[in-house]
Amino acid sequence: MALLYIFVFGRVIGSRIEAVGGVSYIDFVLPGILMLNVLMAAFSHTSSSLYFQRFARHIEEILVAPLSHFEMILGYVLAAVVRASIVGAGVFLIAVFFSAANLEHLFLALLYMLAVSILFSLIGLLVGLWANQFEHLAVLGICVITPLSYVGGMFNTLDMLPYPLRWITRFNPFWYFMDGMRYALIGVHESNLLIGALLIFFLLAAVGTLVWHLFSIGWRLRD
After folding, report:
1. Calpha distance 188→23 (Å, rounded)
2. Rounded to whole angstroms, what are the CA distances from 160 to 10, 34, 38, 155, 167?
3. Of 70, 118, 128, 157, which has the fewest Cβ atoms less than 10 A away?
């Protein structure tokens, strides 16, 4: 999927678009493509893992193990972070073949990738607890994550949007995720990076607390 995104939007369409934000279009869209693949990998890993363990009753083996709720959550999250990191590295390697692999701030890029993968692994746990059918696992990805990513500055700058939509985009958290990664990779950004960092920290704290609470009361785990 990443290869198709980079080829179609970066090479085919990008060859017909002038520089965006002072950089080539393929360089501009790559951070958003990378971020989308990272967060989707983290989300799908925990949501599908937890759901199928509930469905097949394998979750009971974890519940009777001498593990705290924090350790259970940590296990899911670490596995999702590893998967998301491998996916992110794979997307970056693909970009090398299209001469789109830039890395202005290595530490910041790793930090964004780690924070966002942790956040969406926790969101995946919420969906894994909530889902009653296999189809429920795809609802958030199809109806929320992908649309918000597409309108979150993945393929365009704020200046390309009609004026009213610019303000709407500023309330889209995905805009801060992708713009932060864009700054880390190519040194270009439109959002307030401090606001983006505080937003990620707040979401991590809120979602993490909610997941821990649901695990501690056994919601949908002991049904």
Report:
1. 8
2. 17, 21, 26, 10, 13
3. 70
